[in-house]
């Protein structure tokens, strides 16, 4: 719709929108994160929810302790191979629509602990990640920026068509296979459908 | 705090069969340690805990160290007669030092505010049956740390109340902190070709 | 197998042992709102009473020691930040102390003063965070934590202007500190230290005589001094049980001998004593800070002769320890003359303080387990390394 027409109408007290916009507006302004901090980045996540950089004003008012009530999983900190099955299990328990933010260098790709026998080199080996926030640890402002990026991503999701979100489409899975603790590492070592990321289509 | 030689004499007086050696520590820190034979390790530990002059009631740190088999070279000056003239020549001899695993205990006294006294226990070899007596019955603080040494180095502790892996998961098969541990190679991403 | 009416099916546990139908086995964690990180406790409960508790960790084991063996001495310094991620500056100091003992390096006086100042600021913000998280676990959801973190942000601002980072400071070097204080930092620090007692008065007025806090923490999780000493417990947890062992007074490391401060001790060894010991330690730290900021001498902060690149200490070994906010943090280093250490070991206070967690929780209810764990003050980066 023409923007000038919309502004003119709103000045007259007539508010015009689409169902998709309304739906996404409600969704993006009430994202409830799962209270799930692994390591040092968790402290910056807590600091981001404290009085100085209030995360609550973006809608993340409460950090839900239970995955059944959460929309967003902020993987903050190093994911180790011992912890990875539990992370995937928690993701599977979250109801759709659900999002993952990989916060910190360790969750993106292993970080400074990459050469480790117990460190998983990035949570995107097993889960689809929507927003990556680099930093070690990222400042709380960076987390707020990542959060706003996620909000913009939700806002741009159309309700119909090929780019619709996963919970409105029938095909894509919302539960991912849980890796097992093998004798020398995790079995399988990564989820081939998610990682390595597909060759860029650009 | 008495010197290590004095402590060694006291221990040998109280526990007659104990084999104690002083391991000198080169370098500025000068923290020398006592190498204790495995058979009498627990009586020695109990003596160190209960003796009124030492009262080493606090086991601060329990570490494992891996010493794989190495070739040691020694240079010695030897007098040799060549063509009737006596000369001093440097001779290098090589010998193989067998590999072993070592458990190091740092002991302090909270009652008398002294320390450290460092104990070393060496296993006979680095195989799957490397055993050492556990000092957890003497100092409870060694419980989790000995479990960690078992988990990461593979040293079995006789007499430990609950010896199982603590940091890695139970099905893990290797001992990661050993020097010859090679981790399973990770799958690395292949970079996308530049269009 | 077809079921008959009133047939009792024997239930077997994970190892084939017959399970008591009256007992409940719960795994608390690793994702739990009150376990301070990825920590798991396997509880066996009779109703609400704890019969057995086995802590399980390793979910954050990042093989810090193996990385230390493959890294130069200086290269491990940023990794020590990430051990106890609340108190990165004291971790740095402990590591620098161990290496300085190993190689026999002296530290100039101004650097010693800066080390004491940053260590005591770290102690303040750690004990604040602990008070906030302990109260959060007890159900005061948010308010004490918000107050504590508000004050903590002021200290983190000081760290950021001094070292460049809020949490992972990487500030100490072998032979001093990385850089000198910027202009105006000392005045800012003095301001923070001056108005801290007023904040502590407000905090204590809210909490110390609070009926809920007292009834939930007094008599809960009592640790006897004999068990504490034998189990290797250190730090405020040991002092709350009445044992006077503070490494700042025992080892005389740094220049702590020049400051007069007391060591608060507890009488009962319960959770309330541990909380009060930490609050009183904050007051003592303020005394040290106020005196150190006043008497800071001029001079270099890094010995000009220290060699940072190509640092090869002589073969030998050393164990250096300091009084970190959580207990005794020690580093054991074996050098074989090469740029990398042969063995690099961290003695983590939280790991060893957890040895007696089961003893403290037996007979208590599940809600008390949460409070007791909060008073032990663990941080998983240090427990698992």
Outline the fold blueprint:
The complex is a heterotrimer of chains A (202), B (195) and C (385).
Chain A: H1 3-11, H2 19-28, E1 33-34, H3 40-48, E2 72-76, H4 84-93, E3 99-103, H5 105-109, E4 131-133, H6 140-155, E5 180-181, E6 186-187
Parallel strand pairs in A: 1-2, 2-3, 3-4
Antiparallel strand pairs in A: 5-6
Chain B: H1 4-14, E1 20-23, E2 33-36, H2 41-50, E3 58-67, E4 70-82, E5 85-97, E6 100-109, E7 114-122, E8 131-133, H3 142-153, E9 156-158
Parallel strand pairs in B: 2-7, 8-9
Antiparallel strand pairs in B: 1-2, 3-6, 4-5, 6-7
Chain C: E1 24-28, E2 40-46, E3 49-56, H1 64-69, H2 77-81, H3 88-103, H4 109-137, H5 143-163, E4 172-173, E5 176-177, H6 185-207, H7 211-217, H8 225-230, H9 236-240, H10 247-250, H11 271-294, E6 316-324, E7 327-335, E8 343-347, H12 349-353, H13 357-361, H14 366-376, H15 380-384
Antiparallel strand pairs in C: 1-2, 2-3, 4-5, 6-7, 7-8
Written overview of the protein:
The complex is a heterotrimer of chains A (202), B (195) and C (385). With 202 residues, chain A is an alpha/beta fold. In chain A, 29% of the residues lie in helices and 9% in strands. In chain A, the strands form 2 sheets. Chain A has a 4-stranded parallel β-sheet. In chain A, helix 2 (19-28) runs antiparallel to helix 6 and helix 3 (40-48) packs across helix 6 (140-155). The longest helix of chain A is centred in the C-terminal third of the chain and has 16 residues, at 140-155. The model of chain A has no long low-confidence stretch (mean pLDDT 86). Chain B is α/β, with parallel strands linked by helices and 195 residues long. Chain B has a domain at 4-67 and 100-158: NADH:ubiquinone oxidoreductase Nqo5 subunit (Beta Polymerase, domain 2, 2-Layer Sandwich), CATH 3.30.460.80. In chain B, 17% of the residues lie in helices and 35% in strands. Chain B is built from 3 helices and 9 strands, in the order H-E-E-H-E-E-E-E-E-E-H-E. In chain B, strands 1-2-7-6-3 form a 5-stranded mixed β-sheet. In chain B, strands 4-5 form a two-stranded antiparallel ribbon. Chain B has a two-stranded parallel sheet with strand order 8-9. In chain B, strand 8, helix 3 (142-153) and strand 9 form a beta-alpha-beta unit. The longest helix of chain B has 12 residues, at 142-153. Chain B is flat and about 75 Å long. The mean pLDDT of chain B is 84. Chain C is α+β, with helices and mostly antiparallel strands. Chain C is built from 15 helices and 8 strands. Chain C has helices at 64-69, 77-81, 88-103, 109-137, 143-163, 185-207, 211-217, 225-230, 236-240, 247-250, 271-294, 349-353, 357-361, 366-376, 380-384, and strands spanning 24-28, 40-46, 49-56, 172-173, 176-177, 316-324, 327-335, 343-347. In chain C, the strands form 3 sheets. In chain C, strands 1-2-3 form a 3-stranded antiparallel β-sheet. Chain C has a 3-stranded antiparallel β-sheet with strand order 6-7-8. Chain C has a two-stranded antiparallel sheet with strand order 4-5. Chain C starts with 23 loop residues before the first strand and ends with a helix. The B-C interface holds B 25-29, 31, 57-61, 63, 65-66, 104, 106, 110-111, 113, 116, 118, 139-145, 152, 165-169, 176-177 and C 57-58, 61, 63, 65-66, 101-104, 227, 229-233, 243, 245, 250, 313-319, 321, 328, 330, 332, 334-335, 342-343, 345, 347, 351-352, 354-356, 384.
